[in-house]
Amino acid sequence: MSLPPEKASELKQLIHQQLSKMDVHGRIREILAETIREELAPDQQHLSTEDLIKALRRRGIIDDVMKELNFVTDSVDQELPSSPKQTVSFDKQSTLKKIVLGGKAFLEHLQEPEPLPGQICSTFTLCLHYRNQRFRSKPVPCACEPDFHDGFLLEVHRENLGDGTRMADSTTMLSISDPIHMVLIKTDIFGETTLVASYFLEWRSVLGSENGVTSLTVELMGVDCGTLGTESKVSVGILNIKLEMYPPLSQTLSQEVVNTQLALERQKTAEKERLFLVYAKQWWREYLQIRPSHNSRLVKIFAQDENGINRPVCSYVKPLRAGRLLDTPRQAARFVNVLGYERAPVIGGGGKQEQWCTLLAFLCRNKAVREAVSVDHADLELTCLCPQVLGLKGDCEDHANLLCSLLLGYGLEAFVCVGTKAKGAPHAWVMTCGTDGTIMFWESLTGHRYIHKPTNPDGPPLAEQPKPLYPYRTIGCVFNHQMFLGNCQPSDAVETCIFDLNDESKWKPMSEEAIKSVCAPGATTSLPPFPPLCASTIDASVTSNEIEMQLRLLVSEHRKDLGLTTVWEDQLSYLLSPALASYEFERTTSISAGNEEFQDAIRRAVPDGHTFKGFPIHFVYRNARRAFATCLRVSFL
């Protein structure tokens, strides 16, 4: 495997530092002088490289160096985290080697034929997250027995345990309760992705296994996607997994000790969840006593995840730092805006299916880039701009939870709002409260921002009232990772609401201690850990050029069917790029820039007697044929 120049330089520097620390250069000079003096004749003072290596090996210098160097190598398919991570460590660390040996009993694909070499077929991809580390397997063809053969190295030592040069012992690792979250994704031949299964693997059974090696059979259950909510009770397949501690454990625990620890943790978690449920029921009774009409408001305390487990809504939000992937809150809003919107599918109708996703399942459902396509009405010239961005699919609640988490990471006081839009459709959006009292609504599906100015329903009829520009109709509750507040004002209409969250006569709060007991990081073993955001693995420039060539071919074929010839003007295509960049900048910052230069360049490029017409269309997918079909349906053309 070849390394990038900057990584190779970093690796050389680390090795040089360690060799200097061990004074290897001085020891080599001493051995070189000793070898020349003792083993060579007086008339032969030339020493070959092979002679020197033999002398170093004979005196144990090479063995000493190799013992000091401990390489912790991530899987080549691991996604890069947003924060820089050193890939070579010279301290002893505990790592868990996880090997997926294959799958079986994926009966949905029992009748699928063996794909021919080079044939495009549906694939499975296994995504993993453990303690701020993310991995992704190689895609394998969908089959009844998918051929998974991937290995991953997961660091399991806990930070700040004391002596950094000492490996964590078995007892210490037994106290690390973070599970390995595995998500199985299916990608069809058109590039569309589907969440197949989500599973939390308890890895600590390996601590009680002989030689620190154990094999597991994991049954993956389907995700809830129907009105009956029974998909999570149906098996979709089985994975064979091998776990191995590296380096081998010096002392293994008895299986009874491991099982006792796991049982105590489950008992403690169950008790915390029971107490919170009792408190939530009492809070709800008190809320209804304020006003019986509160029963019809959208006050959502629990939400069901993809595995059909009811979790407090506050557990779906946590301050999330994007590193250098997203520079500003508005850029974060634009990022979330371009993620694909997809309602949870419903079997047999019956309205909107309620399903919230854990963050890893949401992030892994799709990886794409967003495209901006500019179409010239005169000659159907198309130019693609593909910013290197992670693209996903999810419902409005998933978008709102992610945007709220990102805004919290930027230090804003952000909340997820649950209410309705026009015609009473349930909806979720984000609200931030400024230090000056300004209330700002953020629509996660469009990236639009709205300042909230309440109207006074008791004001004089002729008094001028602020006209709301936002699409929201009612609001039932707001929450983040620490707070949950139910709207107890006489009217739940957004336009008349006062967002003074400290006024308990308008907003009934839940106990922050009660929320912390089940939603704080590490509070319960059942709480899904938050994964880091990762940079896109897609080369934006290469992908942009590929999409442009595909679109050109589609345009040429379409015009040929109409009896028209097609001539491409590459210079005009290039001149459209600044306009697309300007559109993207305006969407992100609400500031328009560079329009004067673009207009001047177009006027110079368009011949006399010709007219230039064009407008941008934004897509959240990379399917060129689908994008072209959309362009043909646009009435502006």
What does this structure look like?
With 637 residues, the protein is of the alpha+beta class. It is 30% helix and 21% strand. The protein has a seven-stranded antiparallel sheet with strand order 19-18-17-16-20-21-22, with helices on one face. Helix 6 packs antiparallel against helix 10 and helix 7 packs antiparallel against helix 9. The protein starts with a helix and ends with a helix.
List its traits.
637 residues, alpha+beta, 5-stranded antiparallel sheet, 23 strands, 21% strand
Amino- and carboxy-terminal Cα gap = 49 Å
Per DSSP, the total helix count is 15
Sheet bearing the most strands, described?
A: 7 strands, antiparallel
Strands, count: 23
Average predicted local confidence, pLDDT? 80
Low-confidence stretches: 71-91, 346-351, 367-392
**Helix coverage percent of residues?**
25-40%
Work out the radius of gyration.
30 Å
Structural class: alpha+beta
C-alpha geometry: globular
Main β-sheet, spatial strand arrangement:
19-18-17-16-20-21-22
Strand content: 15-25%
Short description:
The chain has 637 residues and is α+β, with helices and mostly antiparallel strands. It has helices at 5-21, 24-39, 49-58, 61-68, 170-174, 255-290, 329-337, 359-364, 396-409, 512-519, 540-561, 570-575, 577-589, 595-605, 624-633; strands at 95-104, 123-130, 133-136, 140-141, 150-155, 180-187, 193-201, 213-221, 235-246, 302-304, 310-312, 340-341, 371-376, 382-385, 393-394, 414-421, 426-433, 439-442, 449-451, 472-479, 484-487, 507-509, 614-619.
